[in-house]
């Protein structure tokens, strides 16, 4: 067990049985401004968490006697620390098990320091440099939906259309909200939405493609979330932009052309990021006049991207 002195800085706790990994995490967290504690086993780590009340904890999954998932569950009983699971396991079941245990994020080994810092900032929705400058009470909190997002999700769960009203389109028979999401075959597991191997956890801003974590810019994650909630409905670039900003035509602050350029560029980046930019799209149908929708289930003898 190691204990970094200095009470003025927020405390981070490392629970890890590999010395090299501890050394790496200590450097990353110390450079970020944390006072760092470390423990080589789960029982010692839990005791340190009770004694020092860290604002951040990184926990390895594979440890002797008690694994990291059980340690996470026990720490979550008394602490609101921001918990990051560190593991060489990166299958979907392992990732979901970490979140079910109470973790706020899941980082695969081998650890890349820059990626780790970026992931902490993205999931917490605040820059790391701002987080370490505050107190534990004001600087860190478990990732959660805000009131606006919660209302949005309740609206979707009720099967109601969301965002701006769709533009008239006689050829579009798709459905918005939950009805359309089920129509294209989406599944819901805890806080996750799954669509043919593409998974998103909207509250945490995490995207997984075929059991592989994918780092996307936040705007692309937001666009993906809006597309998922649109179900089988076709939306123009303008409609997508308004939904992303929570605006209507009456409150819009941009022109149609500006939104088309913005969404077209974001959509290109999103398709490249999830490797869906081929001639036979798996998830995203790109239509004329800057319109987009999710790929619908193919009817017999129909084009797969229709």
UniProtKB/TrEMBL annotation:
Entry keyword set: DNA-binding, Phosphoprotein, Transcription, Transcription regulation, Two-component regulatory system
Gene3D superfamilies attached to this UniProt entry: 3.40.50.2300, Winged helix-like DNA-binding domain superfamily/Winged helix DNA-binding domain (1.10.10.10)
Domain OmpR/PhoB-type span(s) in chain numbering: 190-296
Ranges where the Response regulatory domain occurs: 11-124
MF-aspect GO terms: phosphorelay response regulator activity; transcription cis-regulatory region binding
Listed InterPro entries: CheY-like_superfamily, OmpR/PhoB-type_DNA-bd, Sig_transdc_resp-reg_C-effctor, Sig_transdc_resp-reg_receiver, WalR-like, WH-like_DNA-bd_sf
Region annotation (Disordered) ranges: 159-178
GO cellular component, one term: protein-DNA complex
UniProt cross-references to PROSITE patterns, sorted A to Z: OMPR_PHOB, RESPONSE_REGULATORY
Coiled-coil region(s): none
Domain of life: Bacteria
4-aspartylphosphate: residues carrying this PTM: 60
Chain residues forming the annotated DNA-binding region: 190-296
An annotated GO BP: regulation of DNA-templated transcription
Pfam families to which the protein is assigned, alphabetical: Response_reg
Protein name according to UniProt: DNA-binding response OmpR family regulator
Organism whose genome encodes this protein: Nocardioides soli
Taxonomic classification: Bacteria, Bacillati, Actinomycetota, Actinomycetes, Propionibacteriales
């Amino acid at each position: 067990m190691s204990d970094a002195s200095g009470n003025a800085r927020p405390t981070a706790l490392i629970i890890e049985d590999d010395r090299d990994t501890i050394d790496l995490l200590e450097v990353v967290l110390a450079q970020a401004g944390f006072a760092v504690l470390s423990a080589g086993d789960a029982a010692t780590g839990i005791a340190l968490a009770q004694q020092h009340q860290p604002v951040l904890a990184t926990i390895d999954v594979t440890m002797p006697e008690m694994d990291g998932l059980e340690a996470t569950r026990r720490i979550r009983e008394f602490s609101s620390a921001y918990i990051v699971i560190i593991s060489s396991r990166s299958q979907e079941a392992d990732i979901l098990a970490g979140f079910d245990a109470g973790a706020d994020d899941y980082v695969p080994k081998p650890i890349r320091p820059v990626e780790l810092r970026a992931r902490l900032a993205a999931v917490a929705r605040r820059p790391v440099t701002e987080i370490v400058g505050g107190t534990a009470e004001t600087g860190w909190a478990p990732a959660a939906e805000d009131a606006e997002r919660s209302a949005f999700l309740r609206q979707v769960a009720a099967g109601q259309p969301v965002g701006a009203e769709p533009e008239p389109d006689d050829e579009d028979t798709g459905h918005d909200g939950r009805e359309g999401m089920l129509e294209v075959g989406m599944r819901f597991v805890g806080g996750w939405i799954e669509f043919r191997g593409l998974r998103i956890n909207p509250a945490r801003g995490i995207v997984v493609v075929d059991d592989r974590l994918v780092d996307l810019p936040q705007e692309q994650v937001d666009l993906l979330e809006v597309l998922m909630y649109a179900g089988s409905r076709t939306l123009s670039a303008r409609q997508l932009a308004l939904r992303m900003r929570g605006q209507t035509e009456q409150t819009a602050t941009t022109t149609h052309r500006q939104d088309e350029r913005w969404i077209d560029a974001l959509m290109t980046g999103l398709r490249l990021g999830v490797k869906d930019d081929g001639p036979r799209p798996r998830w995203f149908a790109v239509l004329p006049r800057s319109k987009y929708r999710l790929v619908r289930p193919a009817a017999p003898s129909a084009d797969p991207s229709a």
